[in-house]
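Input chain follows. Return structure tokens only.
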Amino acid sequence: MGSTATINIKSTARTLTGQYYLWLGIWVDEPNDKNFKLTEGLGEQNAHEVNVSFVVPELPYNASGYVLSWYNARLNAEGPAFTFMLKIEPSLQVIPAAAVPGTQVTIKGNGFTANNAIILTLDGKSSNLAIKTNDNGSFSASYTMPSTIAGQHEFKAAVPDIYDLEAKASLSLMPMITVEPDSPQVGNDATITGRGFAARSPVSVEYDGTVIGNSPTTGDSGSFSYTFKVPQASKSEHSVIATDSAGNKAVLGGMRLETVAPPAPAPLRPMAQTFGLFGSKVVSFAWTDVADPSGVAYTLEIGDNLSFFPLGPGMRKTGLTTTSTVVNLKPGVYYWRVKAVDGAGNESQWMLSPYPFKVGAISVTYLILGAIVLILVIVFALRAAFRKIHEYF
């Protein structure tokens, strides 16, 4: 059903010119489900050959087949110019053609006997589905794929008590993995469950690209369960990959750990201070401690503007595990902020120090200008003194 068939008609004695019709059964004034037009066309002038293509309709299996009638009034005004026999064969389709254990697939069958029971098996074992065809010998059924090994698996639909009236279709079963809980916490146990792998095969499990623990081994059905402690990581999304010895691989990407952000730390120092008269100075930064079950690290940013962009070299410190650090800064006015990042990659809000601070009370530029002015004053004073001495003598 649904496929395209073509009838090739050749005539040596007469041309096949003119309007033609192809009917299932015979032509009738009022078409019905047993007699209706399949297609029509026009034979070219002086043509001795015509190719008639049509879509095979939905029909039940009939051991004797179906009559197709080709009408061309120019050749035969009384009835069909030619007749043909159409044999309907049963067919089976699985949608989709590839799936993972636990997913639902659709089994469609056509061309079976009308209103008859169907026995559906998977790899020779009963599907336990109660299936019956409709008036056109078709059926559609949903089936949940069981936990079995990876590879090709065969569905077969057959009519009981009728020899060799059956159809087959293959499905490719792919492996899959799940993690429980869905959003595990750093340092806690998480369980990886795999299905659809090779039977009795060791499995390599990777977390964010690093192989974890000892390799689990699948059972006879290609399934395994493996528990591990979730390590710390700075990013928010993580991946788990399981690969068996046959090369079957399942990837679980975009896994998020617990999503509760840690509290935001409060800036302590510096606050509106000035460090030194001029030149670079080492400035000590400190903030309050915060806690999170997965652990905490801190990020510090120091900028010469409140947008903190662009940041100069060394003005961003990440992965700080204590609540203080020191930074060597050139003279200028600075703003700073700090945030906490937990072991699952969740980030607190930035906390901005309410007051800027200053390095160098006197800038190098003003110092140089002051020195130049002082030198000029001394020079003019000396010149004036020498002039008075000269006048005196």
